[in-house]
């Protein structure tokens, strides 16, 4: 049986001390190399011998000479300590890869990522990675990404025509907001063709707007759309003027109850989803940090969406 099975509960430090005494041939010389006192080293060796139940050295006037048991331990300790050193080296390299800063634009998903608490939690999980979040409109966010003043941008409905590296994040549903007096309110699910004769007030970016147009045009009509950048204003016009709006699933619990005359209805087969992704500048030097961020954003979204 190899000696390392007998010393599986020993500390790496004890093996290092033992090997250094073997190499130095004396406690005094070994203690100087290890920068510990002669007494502390002697005590450590005595404790090791007691734990193993066998003497490791012959203590002679000429120095410390390993016993047969000590020679076996020395032989088996070398690969153990070599692997330990290799592991420490890999850990140091990993720590370097996971250390850095991401300047993050929030052009989508603000309802999820706009809170300071979520980034405080990220810091707890990844103390060596600094996130600098900035709220930007999607146009400004993409401009900053191109200019290199941002490293990554969370954005919805993005059609990557800029050549950025992109990572898909969990998506959620879009729902149609209608007055309860609208005939559409009697439906449990809607198809795009059901929207043919409706008028809309939409708070969506250009990517989503173009997708909506294409979906409607594929059904043979072009929707009558007004646009706004104010979600609350959209709800107000839906309530007061009978217009139709679009919202994301997780937002309905916050705003729909404030407008009891409105109803939010999903699309059949999630025909018009709210997809989010992370767009990253191509020359960002720390891809490991980005993967770390993607994992965190995915976990965070899954915990609130599903």
Automatic annotation (TrEMBL):
Keyword vocabulary terms for this entry: DNA-binding, Transcription, Transcription regulation
Protein name per Swiss-Prot or TrEMBL: HTH lysR-type domain-containing protein
Pfam annotation, one family: LysR_substrate
Originating species: Clostridium symbiosum (strain WAL-14163)
Keyword check for Transmembrane: no
UniProt xrefs under Gene3D superfamilies: 3.40.190.290, Winged helix-like DNA-binding domain superfamily/Winged helix DNA-binding domain
Family: Belongs to the LysR transcriptional regulatory family.
PROSITE patterns hit by this protein: HTH_LYSR
Any one Gene Ontology cellular component term annotated for this protein: protein-DNA complex
Chain ranges of the HTH lysR-type domain: 10-67
One Gene Ontology MF term: DNA-binding transcription factor activity
InterPro entries in alphabetical order: LysR_HTH_N, LysR_subst-bd, WH-like_DNA-bd_sf, WH_DNA-bd_sf
């Amino acid at each position: 049986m190899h000696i390392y099975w007998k010393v599986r509960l020993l500390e790496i430090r004890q093996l290092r001390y033992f090997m250094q005494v073997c190499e130095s041939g004396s406690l005094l010389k070994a203690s100087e190399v290890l920068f510990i006192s002669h007494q502390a080293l002697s005590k450590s060796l005595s404790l090791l011998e007691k734990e193993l139940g066998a003497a490791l050295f012959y203590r002679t006037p000429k120095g410390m000479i390993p016993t047969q048991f000590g020679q076996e331990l020395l032989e088996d300790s070398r690969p153990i300590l070599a692997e330990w050193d290799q592991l420490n080296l890999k850990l140091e390299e990993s720590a370097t890869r996971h250390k850095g800063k991401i300047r993050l634009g929030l052009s989508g998903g603000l309802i999820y990522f706009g809170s300071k608490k979520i980034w405080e939690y990220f810091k707890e999980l990844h103390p060596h990675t600094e996130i600098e979040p900035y709220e930007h409109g999607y146009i400004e966010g993409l401009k900053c990404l191109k200019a290199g003043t941002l490293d990554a941008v969370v954005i919805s409905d993005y059609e990557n025509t800029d050549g950025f590296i992109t990572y898909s994040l969990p998506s959620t549903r879009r729902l149609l907001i209608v007055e309860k007096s609208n005939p559409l309110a009697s439906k449990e699910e809607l198809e795009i063709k059901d929207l043919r004769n409706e008028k809309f007030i939409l708070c969506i970016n250009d990517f989503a707007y173009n997708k909506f147009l294409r979906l409607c045009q594929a059904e043979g009509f072009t929707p009558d759309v007004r646009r706004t950048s104010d979600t609350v204003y959209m709800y107000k016009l839906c309530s007061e003027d009978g217009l139709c709006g679009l919202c994301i699933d997780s937002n309905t619990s916050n705003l729909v109850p404030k407008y009891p005359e409105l109803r939010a209805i999903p699309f059949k087969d999630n025909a018009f989803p709210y997809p989010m992704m992370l767009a990253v500048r191509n020359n960002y030097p720390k891809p490991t940090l980005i993967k770390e961020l993607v994992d965190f954003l995915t976990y965070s979204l899954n915990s609130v969406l599903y």
